[in-house]
Design a protein that fits this description.
With about 375 residues, the protein is an alpha/beta fold. It has 12 helices and 13 strands. α1 links the parallel β1 and β2.
């Protein structure tokens, strides 16, 4: 396969869609992708206007994902993969149709709104050989990869405790009742699934903790709360976790935590040291060895792992953040797809990327959390084996 940019299609993500714009910016950053087609809006005329404003051929702005499949599948210059940037409940039918039509997929998290759909979609991806990447953004940061490598090398010994949190404040009031479309579907069980904050942002925290530590969740006990009156889904979650091997964990996700814009934090404590990473200071990893001084490991250093280096673009002191992390996922997705087409193993940037199986584990986690919390007292639940 030539080293032309891969051709990207998109479903959803049109005018005013925050996450669609993030996908477009991230995909362009390193030149691996070119957006050429899409079904950007439920209103075909509005979608076509958006496509024209983006500089796309209006003939390749489709009225629905079904039209996109029909219009692209026979073209010599058809899209190589399609990004799904729509509400949760639509992920499964769109991804299923794309895979069955022979397209690779990049899907927003959670992978699906139900565990049954997640199991079916992961199996379809595996059996078909189609690529399905899931945008767990925080696994794109270089220093998250550095922490993962160092934990695996035993730098902090046996893991004892994992603390991960994702607090937001943007839904502290009932903005879904005042015309905020993004909040409206996130608080609707028919569109978001069974979990509110735990499904929307708690899955990010769960994936981040597992990605860095390599631990497998054994069972959990959850307490979900809905603080905003009239809201149908949780807007705050506390989850106690027990991992195989004896490590303990605590996860907090909240959409009503005033004073927190995007406070993702991960702290991993072992028998000989600890690592701490804060998303709002993403270029630094805090390492504390037993009986030693606190050390700040900075992105861009020559002594970092290859996994961190291949995901860095600028020297130390030139900050990289959320867009670059998202772009690292798109780099990884492109490399994984190219490696498959060229019949070779992917290079470092195409390894350790979130795939359909990771998406399935995330949905299984949400399912177990809600099952636990629906009891009068938080009950220890073992997630479905995946």
């Amino acid at each position: 396969m030539s080293r032309r940019p891969l051709r990207l299609g998109m479903v959803g993500g049109g005018q005013g869609a925050y996450i669609g714009n993030i996908h477009r910016l991230a995909s362009r950053l390193d030149g691996h992708w070119t957006l050429i087609a899409g079904a950007f809006d439920v209103d075909p005329d509005r979608g076509r206007e958006f496509a024209i404003n983006e500089g796309l051929d209006p003939a390749r702005s489709y009225g629905s994902y079904q039209d996109l499949i029909a219009g692209e599948r026979g073209r010599a210059d058809r899209v190589d993969a399609v990004a799904i940037c729509t509400p949760n409940f639509t992920h499964y039918p769109i991804a299923k149709a794309l895979i069955e039509a022979g397209f690779d997929v990049i899907c927003e998290k959670p992978l699906t709104a139900t565990i049954e759909d997640a199991i079916a979609l992961e199996a379809l991806s595996r059996q078909s050989g189609r690529f399905v990447g899931v945008t767990y953004t925080y696994s794109g940061y270089p220093m998250v990869h550095e922490a993962r490598v160092r934990v695996a090398q035993g730098e902090i010994g046996d893991i004892r405790t994992v603390q991960v949190e994702y607090p937001l404040e943007w839904m502290a009031t009932a903005i879904e009742q005042k015309g905020n479309a993004q909040a409206a579907w996130r608080t609707d069980p028919k569109k978001n699934g069974r979990g509110g904050s735990i499904g929307d942002i708690g899955t990010h925290a769960y994936h981040l903790a597992g990605f860095v530590t390599g631990l497998t969740l054994e069972k959990l006990a959850a307490d979900l709360a809905t603080f905003v009156p009239g809201r149908a889904l949780d807007d705050n979650a506390h989850v106690m976790m027990r991992y195989e091997g004896g490590a303990r964990g605590l996860l907090w996700s909240s959409q009503v935590a005033l004073g927190n814009s995007n406070g993702v934090r991960l702290r991993v404590f072992g028998s000989t040291g600890s690592f701490q990473w804060f998303q709002e200071q993403p270029n630094e990893l805090i390492y504390t060895p037993l009986d030693g001084r606190v050390q700040t490991i900075k992105r861009g250093g020559d002594d970092l792992s290859e996994d961190a280096k291949v995901r860095s673009r600028t020297p130390p002191g030139h900050p990289e953040g959320y867009l670059e992390a998202f772009a690292n996922l798109y780099c990884g997705f492109a490399e994984a797809i190219r490696a498959r087409l060229e019949g070779r193993e992917p290079t470092a940037v195409g390894r350790n990327i979130p795939l359909a199986y990771d998406g399935l584990r995330g949905v299984a986690f949400v399912e177990a959390v809600v099952d636990s919390a629906e009891n009068t007292n938080p009950t220890w639940i073992t997630p479905i084996a995946v």
